[in-house]
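Do me a favour: review this protein, sequence plus structure tokens, and tell me how the chain folds. Record follows.
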Amino acid sequence: MSKYKKRNLLFSVLSVVFVVIFALSACSPLKRGNNVVYKNLTLEHPGVILSEITVATYNIKHCANGYDAVLNELKTADAQIIFIQEADRFTKRSGKETDQIAKLGEDLSLNYAFFQSIELEGGEYGVGILSYFEIESARSIALPGDVKNEPRTLGEVVISIYGKSVSLYTTHLSFEDKAPRTQQLAKIAETVAGKEFIIGADFNTSDLAELAVLNGSYVNDGGFITNGEDGAIDNIVYSSSFFFTAAAMQTSNASDHHLLKARLILA
């Protein structure tokens, strides 16, 4: 083989290696932690600075009324941050190949994190967060409660909103009685203390006195009946660094809860 051909072959090989390395570096792999999986998508968002962000919280009831119905509700919400409760991951009832949080993230072009609360039907069941903003870290925090009842989890994602670190939290608290919920709220308060935060959750209580320990402001003061049976139990709580501008509830039959959303400005 001539020197010219060898040089061209070497160039071709190096070019292929470079392309492979570039492609791998451009991909964000699925990251795993203790009872948490999360991923930043490689899809590009328009380079638009948002003067306000829309946040939403939604108990999707494991898409029991259909995945497309839930997806359409979330598309209508057009939120940059979405907190999800009652999500399935690879369960028999929802499809052994279906990771609901990952699928929603992909279909909405949002980064995502899933936090396991329990093992269920060969898969997992828990809560999740979808974010327009890159996920810098994610962790699952076990909440206290009665061992006879369903374990509860607090999901945490850290993002940066135009240079300011913000911690996002979601959870689904105990409904059986107030005592374990009080313990769970105390643990959440301890976790968010001193941080810029937004919590979107099914708190399973409409009593704002219970939520006072969080030292935040509330979107739902009782006016949004997000669950017909239990009342205004879904809420968004945020730290003093955010200014509230508007809120709304989307009513539908996609779940046994209604989606709650709010527009916030980060100071």
